[in-house]
Write a structure and sequence with these properties.
The complex is a heterodimer. Chain A is an alpha/beta fold. Chain A has 15 helices and 8 strands. In chain A, helix 11 links the parallel strand 7 (221-227) and strand 8 (252-258). Chain B is built from 11 helices and no strands. Chain B is 59% helix and 0% strand. Chain B is elongated, with a radius of gyration of 20 Å. Chain B is mainly α. Classes of the chains: A alpha/beta, B mainly alpha. The interface between A and B is medium-sized, with 29 and 22 residues.
Chain lengths: 311, 213
């Protein structure tokens, strides 16, 4: 069985991104598969805390400094059977020095990780570093909560990710400056993506087709966390519909996780929530989300796949 | 590359429901869409301007008005299927080696223009197209504006009808019908009379003009 690589991202802190990543891992590990969760939140890693790992003998910094040859070797076991963790690093040295080449190497190593499922907890926000880890996911899933600030940042995150995808393809194909300028205009409002593609289609239909396919293959997931009622669940459906209409992307609504105040208690006890409450609505929601992700037929991106996009 | 613009979305897509949706679910979808696009709608917060919400709400209302009425929905289904499946099958009959206009056609254009592209001599239609999806009480009148004689002639030939047979069915003289097809002849100077005849001719040829409403 091939390794699946899922990323969990968020446009805003406090949506429960790391909670989802950690408990999705626990939930899948309970099915007896080898799960590896990786904390790529370079600014503020805390996945280890959610999984009750206080001290890890090795973490990502060991790989970044060359103390270990591969990222795989830095994985440590957790208290949960079948669940291992690559603990993140918050050493400022690495955040500041994660230059292009280091990042490339890290991204390659993440793709090479061995497990049945790899789950990335990516950095909050729409910075390039966060987006690049998010885009590794097949899919990357965005976690939001039902409030205006999370939704605003969520849309900003999606728009930034779209622009990032298009830009990466443009760089790959060495597209003209003209197109890059067009893309800059596309960042302005919700309808401008249409305009961008229309202009591109007029000036260069072949590139237009490549970029449009790239956009369509970017198929993120959406998870609504801390849902309090049916309306919050429907919100996920509505946002996925709106994203398709206005941002031209397929945004798969994977499910809503109900609000549960006991989450706080588990957190303080440094114990993964779904381990404490395996039959809670939260646990079954996470299980359903895992099922959705597993059901999605998305073969992993192979090296050179970009090339096959040439018409 | 085929980009689906908002204008291209059909009523089912507007309400985000499958074509096979049960009547009871249409109301639910409508309420969700209204909640989504109303000014304080959370799902569109920060993404859409008030104007964009207004425009979408108008289309949501329009979609609901049609799809919630079984009769209008049936008419809409028939019409939109005609524009898609049936017209495409005509293309196959034609065995054209040219690009299939019907597929390449801008969806904004109505089925009549698409038909014109299919049969006609690749000439731009000057007249305003009828709203492709919009329910309009005067859809037949609007359709008459863009029904062209040469288009109907192509359709008649496609159906294998002689001008005499068609004229007989319409109870007009073959010369008059010929004049209508070629756009010449003075018999139909009266615009209203001309539109009326174009519409009945179209109906005779099997174009379900009434279903447009």
């Amino acid at each position: 069985m091939e390794t699946t690589l899922w990323a969990i991202g968020s446009g805003k802190g406090g949506t429960g991104k790391s909670f989802v990543a950690a408990n999705l891992g626990v939930s899948l590990a309970a099915r007896g598969r080898d799960i590896l969760v990786v904390d790529t939140d370079l600014g503020g890693p805390n996945l280890h805390t959610l999984l009750g790992v206080r001290d890890a003998p090795t973490d990502m910094s060991d790989f970044l400094t060359g103390r270990t040859a591969s990222l795989q070797e830095t994985a440590v076991p957790t208290s949960v059977p079948h669940l291992r963790l690559v603990k993140g690093t918050d050493e400022l040295l690495f955040i500041a020095n994660l230059n292009y080449l280091k990042k490339k190497r890290l991204l390659r190593q993440i793709k090479a990780l061995q497990a049945a499922h790899v789950i990335l907890d990516t950095g909050t926000g729409s910075a390039f570093n966060s987006l690049d880890f998010f885009l590794l996911g097949r899919p990357g899933s965005l976690v939001i909560t039902p409030d205006p600030t999370a939704i605003e940042n969520g849309y900003y995150f999606l728009k930034s990710a779209i622009i990032r995808v298009l830009r990466l393809y443009m760089e790959f194909y060495r597209m003209k400056d003209l197109h890059t300028r067009l893309l800059e205009q596309a960042e302005k409002d919700s309808r401008s993506l249409y305009t961008f593609f229309q202009n591109l289609q007029a000036s260069d239909p072949a590139y237009g087709a490549i970029l449009y396919r790239a956009l369509k293959s970017f198929r993120p997931g959406l998870i609504v966390n801390k849902a309090r009622n049916e309306r919050d669940v429907l919100l996920g459906r509505a946002i996925s519909d709106v994203a398709q209409k206005y941002l031209l992307i397929e945004l798969d609504f994977l499910g809503a996780i109900p609000y549960d105040e006991r989450v706080e208690t588990s957190l303080r006890r440094l114990s993964p929530f779904v381990l404490d409450h395996p039959t809670s609505p939260v646990a079954s929601a996470l299980n359903a989300i895992a099922d959705q992700l597993l059901a999605r037929e998305r073969p992993p991106l192979k090296d050179g796949e970009l090339r096959t996009a040439v018409p | 590359m085929k980009i689906r613009r908002l204008e291209d979305l059909d009523y089912y897509e507007i309400l985000n429901i499958p074509r096979t949706v049960a009547p009871a679910d249409i109301l639910r979808a409508y309420l969700l869409a209204v909640a989504t696009y109303r000014p304080e709608g959370l799902a569109t917060y920060s993404l859409l301007t008030d104007e964009e919400r207004r425009q979408m709400l108008a289309r949501v209302d329009e979609a609901y008005a049609v799809l919630s009425d079984p009769e209008r929905r049936a008419g809409y289904d028939e019409r939109t299927v005609w524009g898609g499946a049936v017209a495409t099958s005509l293309v196959h009959v034609r065995r054209s080696t040219e690009p299939l206009e019907i597929r390449d056609a801008d969806r904004k254009r109505g089925w009549i223009q698409r038909l014109a592209g299919l049969f006609g001599r690749r000439r731009k239609v000057e007249a305003e197209p009828p709203p492709p999806d919009g329910p309009s009480p005067s859809a037949a009148a609007a359709a008459a504006k863009v029904l062209r004689g040469d288009l109907l002639r192509s359709l008649r030939l496609h159906r294998g009808l002689t001008i005499e047979t068609a004229a007989q069915a319409l109870r007009v003289s073959p010369e008059a019908l010929e004049g209508l097809e070629t756009g010449e002849g003075g018999e139909f100077v009266d615009k209203i009379q001309r539109s009326a005849l174009l519409v009945s001719y179209a109906k005779t040829l099997g174009l379900d003009i009434d279903a447009l409403g």
